[in-house]
Amino acid sequence: MKILHVSVSDIVGGAERAAYRLHRALLAEGIDSNMIVQNKKTDDYTVIGPKNNFEKFVNLLRPSLDQLPVMFYKNKSKTLFSPSWIPFSSVIRKINEIRPDIVHLHWICGGMLRIEDIAKIKFPIVWTLHDMWAFTGGCHYDEHCGRYKKECTHCIVLNSNRENDLSKLVFRRKLKVYREKKIHIVAISKWIKKSSEESSLLGSHRHYHIPNLIDISIFKPFEKDKARNLWNLPKDKKFILFGAINATSDPRKGYNEILKALKHVKTRNIELIVFGSSKPKDTPDFGFKTHYLGHLHDDISLVTLYGAADVLVVPSIQENLSNTIMESLSCGTPVVAFDIGGNSDMIDHLSNGYLAKPFDTKDLAEGIDWILNSQNYDELSLNARRKVEREFDSKIVVKKYI
What we know:
Elements: E1 2-9, H1 14-28, E2 32-39, E3 47-48, H2 53-66, H3 91-98, E4 102-105, E5 125-129, H4 166-180, E6 183-187, H5 190-198, E7 207-209, H6 224-230, E8 238-243, H7 255-262, E9 270-275, E10 290-294, H8 299-308, E11 311-314, H9 323-330, E12 335-338, H10 343-346, E13 353-356, H11 361-372, H12 377-391, H13 394-401
Parallel strand pairs: 1-2, 1-4, 2-3, 4-5, 5-6, 6-7, 8-9, 8-11, 9-10, 11-12, 12-13
Helix pairs in contact: 6-8, 7-11, 9-12
């Protein structure tokens, strides 16, 4: 069985890292797996990237070029919107030359593929949904709009009051392509599966629920004192961890919500760690110290950071299946998050973490306090690790894909 994964990158971004982890897990099971990417960051020979400097240069331009139609919507929200209109991609030619048994699509935006290119793939397609883009008119998260269930128009992400706006155009382009191709849909969370099945674009295609996977031999508990030594953190504090790519600038990641929640946290002797973003220009004063670590680029840094923290807070407004939550639980660090999206697939309320009422920042604060002051913290930590071992271990999940 010859599998070819298609992803905009191999390790930059949560969806890309999830795709690469699956690719490596398939190789470990003896499956002939390769990956084709627009931007290659590893030196892995099983990942096919640009062939020369000219192709690399063009690929760097493609994400900006793809956004040109979006620029006409001056008041759009910060949620990513991908028209996927850029032609002349060499990806389809490469796919068809490789002749895989299965083409496995992942996150294919950023100018990587034109929507119409999907119809040119000559082999069976599996598509893992890392966000909502595949079944919307272009937004990656719909900001609770729900129009994808019928037809996208008057897009709230674009802040459009026009019926025939860009979202409707993209929606109809997808509708035409999806009618021509049979696509097997993998939903990594129960929430995204339900959303996709309710959509008018993908509802008629076959769906499977298979979560992301994680290598539990890498993401595992790390002794707290040693972790804090490595990060030069004090041992007599309780640490709240918050992180995501663009953690402080992407509203969907809930930076404003955690700011509000931290004002209600009653526990003293705490400090905050933020990773995934550098220190913003205007930093709030919580009355306790905040450490801004910027972007982390390797798994070992993440493992030691989860080990140093007492609780991870994931205050996202919309979330599919957070890599951060899964990584933290695998390292034995309990998690507090809103009860939205795929969070309940991983967090068992009051067992390995706390699910707060959606967007109730006071309840989010109560969850933080509950974990930091739990008399059974070691049990929470053990439950966190066991949850991942049972349901998300790469050796278990990869067999479902096979």
